[in-house]
Amino acid sequence: MTLRTLLTGHGLVESPRWHGDRLYFSDWSAGEVIAVDLAGRSETVARLTSLPLCTAFLPDGRMLLVSSPDGLLLRREPDGSLVTHAELGRRPGWNDIVVDGGGNAYVNSIGFDMMAGAPYETGVVVLATPDGAVRQVADGLAFPNGMAVTADGSTLVVAESYGHSLAAFDIEPDGGLSGRRVWADLGEGTPDGICLDAEGAVWYADVPGKRCVRVAEGGQVLQTVELDRGGFACTLGGPDGTTLFIVAAEWSNGPEPVPAGTGQVLATEVTVPAAGRP
Fold first, then answer.
1. Where do the DSSP E strands lie in 94-143?
2. What is the pLDDT of residues 206-246, one digit of tens each?
3. How many CB atoms lie within 10 A of CB 112?
4. CA distance 7 to 118
5. Residue 74 has pLDDT above 90, yes or no
6. Which residues belong to any copy of the SMP-30/Gluconolactonase/LRE-like region domain (predicted)?
């Protein structure tokens, strides 16, 4: 499997999303959302001082951005302005987001301020409906991270980084979550950003493992892409949905967890195309 490099020289890169004919990703270090095409041409499309800084797209194509410090879900309008889409609340650690086909946005919080060294607490998932109403729909998650919705809209999969597993929930008609279960026990795997493919498998990025792994429900490893640095997130896209995009960066326990300039956007071809969201 051949990896090609689309971009280099970034910081803590996360939240890759294929939309239209470009890949969008966030550089948390710079506070930027960047779009890049398959030729490596890039532009900054939004700026937001937020750590984390994760995004998703509504069915009508507008982008949502999680403004973590403010507890806000923002929406990028066609003119590039950012307006409030929903008020999430002043909970620490707002993190990842996925939007289903009806415009329901699921946003998770890890439950504590990791960057400030706060003690560990379990996290939650909230639902922001298209009318801006917000309610909690899941709790007790061990550092919730990447999320994905199956193609039929019936299931939400959540990466539990500290749980070394993927959790699944049934999505109810009103957007609520029920039927929590372990979708896959990953052993020593530490899942961060995830995506789904058309065979119902999950790709997950792994920072300490320096890899991206494709697993079936139940945990069977189907494929592994080895990296020379931490894998923070991955998504499927491209013209045929068979390009696996990976955002990766060096990770250290020093004063600068992600050394400047080590963030990269990588791509490789796979055989099973994208399905579901993101």
1. 94-99, 105-109, 123-128, 134-141
2. 999 999 999 999 999 999 999 999 999 999 999 999 999 99
3. 18
4. 34
5. yes
6. 14-249
Question: Hey, which bits of 117-262 come out as E strands?
Answer: 123-128, 134-141, 144-149, 155-160, 165-171, 177-185, 191-196, 202-206, 211-215, 221-226, 230-237, 243-249
Which residues lie across from 27 on neighbouring strands?
A: 13, 32
DSSP-based three-state secondary structure for 116: helix
Q: How far apart are CA 147 and CA 128, in angstroms?
A: 15
Q: DSSP state, 115?
A: G
Nearest to 36 by CA among 235, 230, 198, 229: 235
Contact criterion met (CB below 8 Å) for 125 and 110: no
Q: What is the mean pLDDT of the chain?
A: 96
Burial class for 122, CB neighbours closer than 10 Å (0-12, 13-18, 19+): middle
Report the alpha-carbon distance of residue 72 to residue 83 in Å, rounded. 10
User: Homologous superfamily of 4-269 in CATH?
Assistant: TolB, C-terminal domain (2.120.10.30)
The sign of the CA dihedral 238, 245, 79, 104 is: positive
Cα 21 to the center of its chain, rounded Å: 19
Peptide bond into 278 cis (omega under 30): yes
For residues 88 and 69, the answer to whether their CB atoms sit within 8 Å is no
Tell me the C-alpha distance between 225 and 205, whole Å.
9
Is residue 146 classed as helix, strand or coil in its secondary structure? strand
Give 140's contacts (C-beta < 8 A, 6+ positions apart): 122
Residue type, 98: V
Length reported for the chain: 278
* Amino acid residing at 255: P
